[in-house]
Amino acid sequence: MLRASKILQYLSFMENQGFDADQVLARSGLSPNKLRQTKMDLSYAQLQTIIQNMISLTGNTALGFEIGSRLSPSDMGAVGHGMLVAPTFRQTIQIWRAYAPTLFGSVIQLSLAEEEQLWRMYVTATLPAGVCYQFCLEEYLALVASMGERILGDSVSYGELQIQYAAPPHRADYQKLFRCPVRFDCARTCISVRHPKLDDTIQTRDEYLFPIYQHYCARQSNTVIDESSQAFGVHSYLLKSLGNPPDLVHMAEGEECSPSTLRRRLKAEGVNFRKLRNEFRQDFAKEYLKTTTLSAKEIAYLLGYRDTKPFLRAFKRWTGMSVGQYSKTFGPD
After folding, report:
1. What is the residue-averaged pLDDT of the chain?
2. What CA–CA distance (Å, rounded) separates 57 from 13?
3. I want to staple 145 with a disulfide (CB 3.0 to 4.6 A). Which of 128, 161, 177, 325 is the partner?
4. Cα 322–chain centre separation
């Protein structure tokens, strides 16, 4: 089910359109504070109310397309980044199927069918038919089209788009997004893809970072996560900042608040940025020495160290062991 963090994204979008949170959340029993302070899933009724409010306020029946087209990998956290650096489309889809429901809160479920000349992606949603289902599907379709363009440019070739429900007034938007024949009132919703093949390598792949994001997604999905906490936000920021020196000032800019406000929010949760950064670095280093063949220099770079020596000293302080000793004791065979 959709997570509270996803609704907060909707609130941000609607605020930019000139509508406040009270208007968007009317009759849902929710408030921005409740969404930020409580780890929760939304009921179908709450989700439907919010979506109907957004469409009514904007007068835009194609609002799902507009919101989905604006989603970036960063908006999707580790799931989005993992999809972007996946070596093949098959692995991109595997990341979504395995982790999007838990970590991104998506109601969209996927299955694949392969044929000689094309492959098909069948799309279902854990929602009853109606406005809410159409909105969530259109948001996902726009995301598929934008991610395909981001990954492969104009070289993605779709065969046909089949939609389970009747054609809406904005049916032309479907054709515009996928540049292929579109049929409505079909037995199932399905996207047919001619190129690339599922196992063709894609240009945004990063076979170095992909297993890191994949492993992180797996760990997150097995952990009880309070996505509304500021500490979780720091953890996500540090993951997205791999390879760059992370600091509180840059994170505050991303959170659209001042460094002092961010410090105050963290203090209210009983933590601070430096402590969270050190815990993340320690956890990351230990995990990847255990499970990968990354060198100390590579791990140090990913954690934002510009020189290996400070990382080596920090690791000895964290564990009481040198990197070499730790890797020899716990590393992969």
Report:
1. 86
2. 12
3. 177
4. 35
